[in-house]
């Protein structure tokens, strides 16, 4: 079964470049540009507003939604509530990134509550992940040295990646946005999330080969995402699969 | 007549580096740093606050104003109203960028209303442009593969540019800021907007020669804007002119 | 005495990489990512939220605090008040950066008021600095061609640096964040601030050697901060010291 993911991810990458889904991101105020540029590099079309007056219009036009909890205030909470409701009405898939919920109990409580509102995927690092209780059916992505994607007892582990990614603020948030982008073109959320993490990991490895530090890693990562083809995925994927 | 623009733009670029106008930008929350860095690369002096309590003080000290509608919320609307009033009182020119108004009817309505408050220039992509009715006298810039600058039946078309610019979030917003910067030093708004678009297009071409993707295009664009001289403009301008 | 700073800064840089302090930044909306990436490049751990509901939790977990006044609105003022109170309760040191207070009288008044609440260090450029009255005991850092760090009549002057830094928005804000990071690991605030400015100046010089303009300077600066060792500091420091 583990052979299936690289082929599938390769096809999905080609599909992304052809279909160009719109992805609306409720993003923190720190890394919106990196996330938008990363989506554009894969030929997805990002939008980013979080004003309550407008977010419903933007989500209604999007093919998928990312809800990232970084820099969370009252207005952003309101906007998230509206966005998730519109996504539910329109049947749009969404991914939840509870960024930094380990720093703030109210943020963790808000993340837990959002998990009951039907995200297709949760993406979190280990510290965030360990605080949350993931409902059955939600695909759970735990990122780290190895990224682990799990649903109903089945798991993929992706070993691709590069240590410099952890030194660039927002690479984790970008991986969450890529998950949302693949949800827009693949109804199997487990496959969409796994493909996103594999593609992101291979891009990080490519970037690491030319970067001389975290500063040059970031433009190299965007160049890699833009240059990446299905063949790169087939050649470089390092994954493991366990059936539950 | 079309020969006049490159010479004029070349002079204005030299004037920009000498005079260093202050440009206040009511910017979205996604790309303020790229816009500030792009203005600085031309030796203009950017400022970016959008808090209603402070924006009037900042606009009063600025030589020109950019109003960009990205990520528009109630506070930003209030700040925009104050900024436009102060600009009118002080006789400061301003440019309007109705970013993403095609995604949100209230944003389009707000853009239309702002067009009645006396901007010197409107800058919009085709989707945004087609939604709006531009009052007579406002210079209308429609960006795309070719940028088209029009006023009272006269038009310039600028063919300079590079496809990678479209993959970098905020390059359109930056071109709007450059228009505002040239408005600060040139009272003929048609010439100011045309010079800005020509200079930006030539810088994009320079950047495209060294970039290996959208990630490396962005620093290369800032380097090009900083390195660009009047001579580059004269050598590389590709424009057309029609008299109405 | 002036020989002591390079050795001390060299040791503190090694300590920073080993101890990895958490630094919470109340940042403007323009350059939070550069500041976070710069802290990460020195192996400090940044966080950036400014929502009043959450900032207390973040500051309580941080080892030091930066208060930057860029893009100041009512919510950010409230968050700053909470953050400074929590820092005082927990005995956490903090640095104040009154960014652009020379543009806005209410911002200057707010900065003056914050100076009475016990920051360890003030960092300002000349225009901002000249507006403020620095209480005795607060370390005063005035940045410019030469950076000058003063307390109780003693001063260090750091001549390291590079002119391209002034063309990149947020490098000044980043130097303020590095001061906060060194406050987290060095109780002598005069030494912490001096080490931060020296290390930042040497990194700017390293970056200037490979950059071809302001665009390529920024990733080169982050690469330099990540690559910098205590030995670089000892070899390249250009400082002067005056005892009061």
From TrEMBL, chains A, B, C:
Catalytic EC class: transferase
Keyword Transferase: yes
Metabolic or biological pathway: Cofactor biosynthesis; thiamine diphosphate biosynthesis; 4-methyl-5-(2-phosphoethyl)-thiazole from 5-(2-hydroxyethyl)-4-methylthiazole: step 1/1
Catalytic activity: 5-(2-hydroxyethyl)-4-methylthiazole + ATP = 4-methyl-5-(2-phosphooxyethyl)-thiazole + ADP + H(+)
Pfam assignment, any one: HK
GO molecular function: hydroxyethylthiazole kinase activity
InterPro entries: Hyethyz_kinase, Ribokinase-like
Keyword Hydrolase: no
Alphabetized UniProt keyword annotations: ATP-binding, Kinase, Magnesium, Metal-binding, Nucleotide-binding, Thiamine biosynthesis, Transferase
Cofactor(s) this protein requires: Mg(2+)
Superkingdom of this protein's organism: Bacteria
CDD domains: THZ_kinase
EC number, UniProt record: 2.7.1.50
Protein name: hydroxyethylthiazole kinase
């Amino acid at each position: 079964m583990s052979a299936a993911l690289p082929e599938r991810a390769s096809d999905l990458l080609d599909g992304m470049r052809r279909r160009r889904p719109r992805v609306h991101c409720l993003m923190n105020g720190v890394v919106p540009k990196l996330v938008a540029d990363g989506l554009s590099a894969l030929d997805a079309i990002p939008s980013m507003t979080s004003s309550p007056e407008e977010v419903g219009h933007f989500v209604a036009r999007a093919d998928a939604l990312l809800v990232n909890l970084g820099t969370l205030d009252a207005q952003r909470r309101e906007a998230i509530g509206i966005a998730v409701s519109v996504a539910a009405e329109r049947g749009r898939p969404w991914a939840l990134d509870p960024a930094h919920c380990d720093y703030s109990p109210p943020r963790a409580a808000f993340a837990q509550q959002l998990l009951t509102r039907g995200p297709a995927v949760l993406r979190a690092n280990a510290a965030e992940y360990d605080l949350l209780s993931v409902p059955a059916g939600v695909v759970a992505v735990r990122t780290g040295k190895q990224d682990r994607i799990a649903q109903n007892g089945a798991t993929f582990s992706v070993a691709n990646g590069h240590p410099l990614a952890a030194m660039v603020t927002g690479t984790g948030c970008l991986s969450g946005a890529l998950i949302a982008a693949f949800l827009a073109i693949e109804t199997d959320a487990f496959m969409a999330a796994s493909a996103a993490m594999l593609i992101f990991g291979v891009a990080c490895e490519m970037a690491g080969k030319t970067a001389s530090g975290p500063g040059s890693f970031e433009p190299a990562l965007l160049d890699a995402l833009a240059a990446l083809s299905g063949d790169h995925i087939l050649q470089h994927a390092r994954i493991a699969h366990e059936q539950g």
